[in-house]
């Protein structure tokens, strides 16, 4: 195994996992809930992007803003129409309802798209690479993926820390009742948070679709990677989530290089190790 | 100031006394099953008991302990694989190995709980799922356990088919009585009261002297034991085990939906839910994905419109409790 190469590839793969994770982190950061269907929505987003590419003939990267807008609207409607009804009464209702959604999304895709593996073709760039010297080269596409992940992390940090919307998000996250008293409209705010989460999901789904071949049943894996990246990085910081994604990506890359059966397992084990020694995550900002 | 009124604490009513009498008659009738049931029917009863036990254990975790796990398939798989190791590789009697396998699951719950209890709420839920995946991948990478392809229960070859089916069936009846009876007893005990208090408000429970951490661990270990026994029985009847069947994700909606649709936080609810699941599966499973889509939508609708579940709605409307675990305060002058 070439260690440097493996770590570089893992780091770039970690960008994708960070993209998976940031959508989930937005929901948790504002609503204190976890969306079990998160991974299934990533898969749904990939099928939607395939459809948009076929319908418009646009380059996959140009479809991203379109897909993000569609998914943001969808996320807002889903939150206002269904998910807001599950809030405020403990954790069972949001878990069961989002689990139900996960089953529905996966099986609707299974029914309409078949179980065949699909992928998003990237014209021109899919094999391009940049030589780094010393026989080392990085793919252009993984590099773009990582840069986009870092950009999304910066953007979310700005929204959460530098805007009025972000102040309101943090207020409902800390104390929903007090925030309502001082005039924060929490129902609508949860809709906005969901819209942001789903826009990030749409971005992530295009990169996922190019990087992997996918089937309708992959959703739960993506949920677990997203969750692990958040916990490894620590809650309350999108930079922490990005770092968590990178650590997960490196762990999987090393595991996979040692034995193809150990890749995913190595990622899970690093997650459990972090849980054991530092349950608040490596780069936590808030408890 | 109002003087303290003497109160009478009532536990259960006519429905409870009738219910337990009927349950006893049913169990005795059921125990004679091997003399009049077909192989097919007996297999169905065994499967029913396994699913019911798993559902009850999930219910006790989620509905009483407030611990919502998406990873109980870890203990289904551990119980199953432990049985195959005891029976195939160590030569133990397969049926006596079932409680031993439950014990293995409970033992592995100790280190597991150390990890997953570091998170709470939704994060606890997903962490339990990761742990189940870790067990699945460890087994799938272990050639001594048949890797991804799985193993057959060759130890069962020592019994002829009729004997094997009858003993499996009686084991299932014993598991049914132990599960329902054991939980009924547990939930009426001090532990049950502590659990309910923790579910409603862990901070208040702690301030009243409940050892929250210890009680949560206890219920987690009990659930692992019961789920492990059910997994062992399930795969001893199936005669074959593989990592995907044992630790797979297909178990999760089964547990979630039977308990939520039947009625979480009651002993009756999972029984109703599991019965309903068997009927629905019998009638509609041919529809494949549509059937699963409908099941998902049903769970969402029930959770939002009828959060008490089917049995919970019935109990709330008519005050029926077949397995009463409530403490009902009554004026001593009032007669029932």
Describe the structure.
The complex is a heterodimer of chains A (287) and B (336). Chain A is mainly alpha-helical and 287 residues long. Chain A has helices at 3-31, 38-56, 60-81, 92-113, 140-162, 164-174, 176-181, 186-211, 219-233, 238-258, 263-277; strands spanning 129-133, 136-139. Chain A has a single domain, classed as ABC transporter involved in vitamin B12 uptake, BtuC (Orthogonal Bundle), CATH 1.10.3470. Chain A has 11 helices and 2 strands. Helix content of chain B is 70%, strand content 3%. In chain B, the strands form 2 sheets. Chain B has a two-stranded antiparallel sheet with strand order 1-4. In chain B, 45% of the residues are buried. Chain B has a domain at 16-249. The A-B interface holds A 28, 32-34, 36, 82, 85-86, 89-97, 99-104, 107-108, 110-111, 220, 223-224, 227-228, 231, 259, 261-262, 264-265, 268-269, 271-272, 275-276, 279 and B 62, 66, 68, 70, 114-116, 118-119, 121-123, 125-127, 129-131, 133-134, 137-138, 140-141, 249, 252-253, 256, 260, 264, 289-290, 292-293, 295-297, 299-300, 303-304, 307.
**Series of secondary-structure elements of chain B, N-terminal to C-terminal:** EHHHHHEHHHHEHHHHHE
Q: Which value, in Å, is the CA radius of gyration of chain A?
A: 19 Å
CATH level-two architecture of chain A: Orthogonal Bundle
Low-confidence stretches of chain A: none
Number of domains of chain A: 1
Oligomer description: heterodimer
**Largest sheet, spatial ordering of strands of chain A:** 1-2
